[in-house]
């Protein structure tokens, strides 16, 4: 059975490569130009954040630099937003998109993903005194519940799909947490990883049931579709980063950071 799966995988890769014949791989393009175009939003700690000095920092920023080093090239940061990320990808502005990106079937229709980084899922982030109040979809999906989300990402999509009766406001993903603290909103639905990170920096906020998400999710780096050679390279680099402990050490370092 295992041999059959391997054979089918290789056959599929060969077929896709044949279809792409004559189109330069992003792998070749990156090596030729000496730079990799990394699209990132810069608004999603601990993965990607544009600091006050105008420098990007975070888990995926360090991983982008690691990928560039493995290729012997420099990083060319391409600013994007959650609304425009897919159009940047399909317009060939990105060799890769990084920064806490959730895998969805809608995104898979237009782009590819590298191998899964981590499992994640949507949970409520609330003021700590309200943890028991906002546990379930039924408790959240009420007209009296003030939700706040960044525009254009999977958080907004989840809310519009699962919590249509709640009151939704859209806000930038940098100051959104202070809005919760200041009682200008009640709940933010976000990935468990972000909620756990932010509650360390905002003591009045608590992640609700981070081990029992309202919706299962995965995170991965987004790649241009139908480029087998590029995907295989990124997957192998990521596999080695995990196998030698570099990725987990980086994650542990960032998740342990305290302001």
Automatic annotation (TrEMBL):
Gene3D superfamilies: Periplasmic binding protein-like II. The keyword Transmembrane does not apply. It comes from the Bacteria. Keywords: Signal. Residues 35-258 form the Solute-binding protein family 3/N-terminal domain. InterPro entries: Solute-binding_3/MltF_N. Residues 1-20 form the signal peptide. It holds the Pfam family SBP_bac_3. Belongs to the bacterial solute-binding protein 3 family. This is Prephenate dehydratase. It comes from Hafnia psychrotolerans.
